TrEMBL record:
<keyword id="KW-0012">Acyltransferase</keyword>
<feature type="domain" description="Phospholipid/glycerol acyltransferase">
    <location>
        <begin position="33"/>
        <end position="142"/>
    </location>
</feature>
<keyword id="KW-0472">Membrane</keyword>
<keyword id="KW-0812">Transmembrane</keyword>
<feature type="transmembrane region" description="Helical">
    <location>
        <begin position="7"/>
        <end position="28"/>
    </location>
</feature>
<dbReference type="InterPro" id="IPR002123">
    <property type="entry name" value="Plipid/glycerol_acylTrfase"/>
</dbReference>
<keyword id="KW-0808">Transferase</keyword>
<keyword id="KW-1133">Transmembrane helix</keyword>
<dbReference type="GO" id="GO:0003841">
    <property type="term" value="F:1-acylglycerol-3-phosphate O-acyltransferase activity"/>
</dbReference>
<protein>
    <recommendedName>
        <fullName>Phospholipid/glycerol acyltransferase domain-containing protein</fullName>
    </recommendedName>
</protein>
<dbReference type="GO" id="GO:0006654">
    <property type="term" value="P:phosphatidic acid biosynthetic process"/>
</dbReference>
<dbReference type="Pfam" id="PF01553">
    <property type="entry name" value="Acyltransferase"/>
</dbReference>
Length: 192
């Protein structure tokens, strides 16, 4: 695990110690895995990196890597693979990580949701499921803690609900995979 990644996780744990509770339900399967999750807030990626006891690589939009402090920390910790909303996904790097036994995190909605409704999923998730088990994770509470458009976060209890791994068959169409994946996230959120 990269030293900067460890430092970022350690600092995050200290910050969370003084904040509202973050509860994790369920457990991750063995590597490799493709974690997919709903995306309400800027809090979602760091919460997963801090609370899941595993080295994670996130698919991120290129502009995220250009942010001043956060982008610098992401680049230093080597925790993100740049993707483009207009071009092809940075799938070669993600596939290489999966083939070496790593865990990739993707937010298939592509951006933070403006409502509590789960948006339609983009097909990048379906492509990655050809190389590893897919693990649904619902993050509940980050919409209330730091929704899109709010300048600063507020205290709010957060739950991370890890679903059962899904092994999609290579014959399944991308549309079917993203439909099933979206349904799994919606079901987990209702349980939260």
């Amino acid at each position: 695990m990269n030293a900067w990644y460890k430092i970022a996780r350690f600092l995050g744990k200290i910050i969370l110690f003084f904040g509202p509770p973050v509860l994790v339900f369920g457990s991750l399967p063995e590597n490799p895995a493709v974690i997919f999750s709903n995306h309400y807030s800027f809090l979602d990626p760091p919460l997963l990196a801090i609370m899941l006891n595993r080295r994670l690589w996130f698919l991120a939009l290129p502009e995220v890597l250009e942010w001043k402090f956060i982008g610098w920390l992401i680049r230093k910790s080597r925790s993100a693979i740049s993707i483009s909303s207009t071009g092809p996904f940075g799938l070669k790097g993600a596939i290489k990580i999966l083939k070496s036994g790593g865990t990739i995190v993707i937010f298939p909605e592509g951006t933070r949701s403006e409502t509590r409704e789960v948006q339609d999923f983009k097909p990048g998730l379906a492509m990655l499921t050809k190389f590893a088990k897919a693990v649904p994770i619902a993050i509940d509470g980050t919409f209330e803690a730091w929704p899109r458009g709010r300048r600063l976060p507020r205290r709010y209890k957060i739950k991370i609900l890890i679903g059962k791994p899904i092994e999609f068959s290579p014959e399944q169409e991308n549309e079917e995979i993203v439909r099933i994946a979206k349904k799994e996230i919606s079901l987990l959120l209702r349980q939260g």
